[in-house]
Design brief:
Blueprint (H helix, E strand, L loop, with lengths): L5 E2 L16 E3 L8 E7 L2 E6 L2 E7 L1 H10 L10 E11 L7 E7 L4 E5 L7 E4 L1 E11 L2 E8 L2 E8 L10 E4 L3 E5 L2 E6 L2 E5 L3 E6 L2 E5 L1 E6 L2 E6 L8 E4 L1 E3 L10 E8 L5 E8 L8 E6 L11 E8 L6 E8 L4 E8 L5 E7 L35 E7 L6 E7 L24 E4 L5 E7 L21 E7 L6 E7 L5 E8 L5 E7 L21 E7 L6 E7 L5 E8 L5 E7 L19 E6 L4
Parallel strand pairs: 8-27
Antiparallel strand pairs: 1-23, 2-3, 2-10, 3-4, 4-5, 5-6, 6-13, 6-25, 7-10, 8-9, 10-11, 11-12, 12-21, 12-22, 13-20, 14-15, 15-16, 16-22, 17-18, 17-21, 19-20, 23-24, 24-26, 26-27, 28-29, 29-30, 30-31, 32-33, 33-34, 34-35, 36-37, 37-38, 38-39, 40-41, 41-42
């Protein structure tokens, strides 16, 4: 069956959580070796190391500001997110400490980042808490998130010595005891660790034990009052970082789809936080491709249950530059197909990919998306396994100019209009893509309808891959001498392919006897076109619009092959109304039904 993807950018910003829940995600090779687990908290990323807790704070307001205000002229220095990293290092801790996650959370996390498959990670699990056994002789460390902070327990076995515990707070701007609270100064204000609760459970009764901090030459320990050394002792501090809220993995939705069973899929951009290599105050340039410690914007893909409330799996997909998803669809095997664009020269591709190399283009910065592409963009197509754990197929496709980005002034009308195009499937599972390109050398095939770029800022493109993304079965341009772009596609019962989009070309090819034989004027017209299933013939093509701006963002078919388009118009009131009882004369959106032959 065909399952439809929906581009959400015209609706504004849909925020979907990458992790979709709280928890400590295990390290399966996606992060440096010293990391065992990672969690997101209020304005903070927690990194669990084998002898330390790394608290990486940031300014989420800066993320919100940059996302809404990035302009094309901004330079990398104008797009930095301030961070301050503090490490709680347990001095003298055992090198043989063993770490385990407890309280398995539903769902799994996958990381397909960069070209090297040895650094890809699949089926990483999240846990409610992390326990480090044998941190000191007879002393274990338990970590969990609590409220607006982090709670950690030091669990002492009978006869264990609490004075063994010594903690260095690396990277703080200042450290002091204030009314029995440990206060750390950072560039974002104070981190506060409350006076620890200490207790013993003896004979079914919880007995409180007096406990307070001891600060000596910048090192923190604990002074414990009288207790029964024959029983375990728990020291229970809480670190509160509620001053800020948010997450560097804030993400903005671009596409969504569902499968035959009703499971939900979301495709978004993720501003993922890289592991800090600098302790103390530091900056991260979050636009990928600019270097520094940040991986930039990756594609985040999440599968939810049929109610949309429980995570099934979640994955990152991307390289060292910025990557964005445009469209999603699920095949009959439950595998997720992704269409996107990338500025990464190391985007993960698979063996026998049609094209494993990045062609790039010219530097480009979309307005307000939080991304930049100093080396230009290519289109990418990828196929993810049904359980989200395997990158089954992935390829670049593009020429030496920018591909997949709708940046023509006549056609880029709404926020995030650059991120359009659609991926769909034919009856046998082959992958069809409708989009646009600025590349005169975009790959086409010999028997395609049109093998040459027509002109203008970009042409529409339509092409088909086999399911393995190793064979470009056919590929064609479509356009006139001004800007043209395809935004949506549909396959009819005969296997022919319809596309819809926008054009500024008065000489776009139309076929005889279709509804709109001439360009209607204004900055752009909508168009609809039908191609043969092998891409070799233009079967029908028509303009649709009024005397101002018009575009068709979606195309659909009913059971008898009638064609429906949904789009946007600025044409004069009443211009596009006909044969209906209900209409809004100047509503701004257009909805039209055309005969199967247009």
């Amino acid at each position: 069956m065909r399952v439809r993807s929906a581009l959400l950018s015209a609706l504004g910003c849909l925020t979907l959580p990458v992790s979709a829940q709280r928890g400590f995600v295990e390290n399966k090779g996606q992060w440096p070796m010293q990391v065992t687990h990672r969690a997101e908290a209020q304005g903070t990323i927690l990194w669990c190391e084998r002898d330390a807790i790394l608290v990486d704070r940031f300014d989420p307001q800066a993320i919100e500001h940059h996302h809404g205000t990035v302009e094309a002229h901004d330079g990398p220095a104008e797009r930095v997110i301030p961070h301050h990293a503090v490490r709680l290092r347990f001095l003298g801790a055992s090198a043989a400490v063993q770490t385990e996650g407890h309280g398995l959370q539903p769902g799994s996390f996958n990381y397909f980042l960069g070209k090297d498959p040895t650094h890809w990670a699949s089926n990483a699990k999240a846990y409610a808490s992390v326990q480090q056994y044998g941190l000191y002789p007879g002393i274990d460390l338990h970590l969990k998130q609590q409220g607006t902070g982090m709670k950690y327990d030091l669990v002492l076995a009978p006869e264990a010595d609490p004075t063994t515990v010594r903690i260095a707070y690396e990277g703080v701007d200042g450290l002091q005891l204030r009314e029995d609270r440990l206060v750390m100064r950072t560039r974002f204000g104070e981190l506060v660790e409350t006076i620890p609760l200490a207790y013993q459970d003896i004979a079914g009764e919880r007995r409180k034990v007096d406990c307070r901090y001891r600060l000596t030459d910048g090192t923190v320990g604990f002074l414990v009052g009288a207790y029964d050394a024959a029983y375990p002792l728990v020291i229970d501090p809480t670190l509160d970082f509620s001053t800020y809220s948010g997450s560097t993995s804030n993400n903005f939705g671009y596409s969504a789809t569902f499968d035959a069973l009703g499971f939900l899929y979301a495709g978004s951009s993720a501003f993922g936080q890289g592991y800090p290599t600098v302790i103390g105050s530091y900056d991260i340039t979050w636009n990928g491709g600019d270097g520094n410690q940040n991986t930039g914007t990756d594609i985040a893909l999440t599968k939810f249950d049929t109610s949309g409330t429980a995570l099934i799996w979640s994955t990152f997909l991307g390289g060292g530059g910025d990557d964005l998803p445009h469209s999603l669809i699920v095949n009959d095997a439950g595998e997720l197909i992704v269409l996107g664009t990338t500025g990464s020269n190391n985007f993960p591709t698979t063996t026998n990919a049609y094209d494993a190399s990045f062609a790039g283009g010219t530097a480009f910065t979309p307005q307000g998306l939080g991304t930049t592409y100093p080396q230009g963009l290519d289109m990418i197509v990828a196929r993810i396994s049904a359980d989200g754990s395997d990158l089954l197929a992935s390829t670049y496709i593009g020429g030496t100019a920018n591909d997949g980005i709708n940046s023509a002034p006549a056609l880029k009308f709404n926020y995030a209009d650059e991120i359009r195009g659609e991926v769909l499937l034919d009856a046998t599972g082959n992958i069809i893509v409708a989009g646009c390109t600025q590349s005169i050398d975009f790959p086409t095939t010999p028997n395609a309808y049109r093998t040459a770029f027509t002109g203008g800022s970009h042409d529409a493109v339509l092409f088909q891959f086999d399911p393995q993304l190793s064979n470009l079965m056919w590929s064609t341009f479509f356009g006139g001498t001004s800007a043209d772009a395809a935004y949506a596609a549909e396959v009819d019962a005969q296997g022919d392919i319809l596309i819809s989009g926008g054009t500024a070309s008065a000489n776009l090819t139309v076929t005889p006897n279709t509804f709109g034989q001439t360009y209607n004027g204004g900055t752009a017209d909508a168009f609809v076109a039908t191609f043969s299933g092998d891409g070799s013939l233009l079967l029908a093509s028509t303009f649709y619009g009024g005397s101002a701006y018009d575009q068709a963002y979606f195309v659909e078919l009913d059971d008898v092959g009638s064609v429906y388009i949904l789009g946007q118009t600025l044409s004069p009131s009443g211009t596009l109304i006909g044969n209906v009882e209900y209409a809004v004369p100047d509503g701004g959106q257009l909805l039209a039904k055309l005969a199967p032959d247009l």
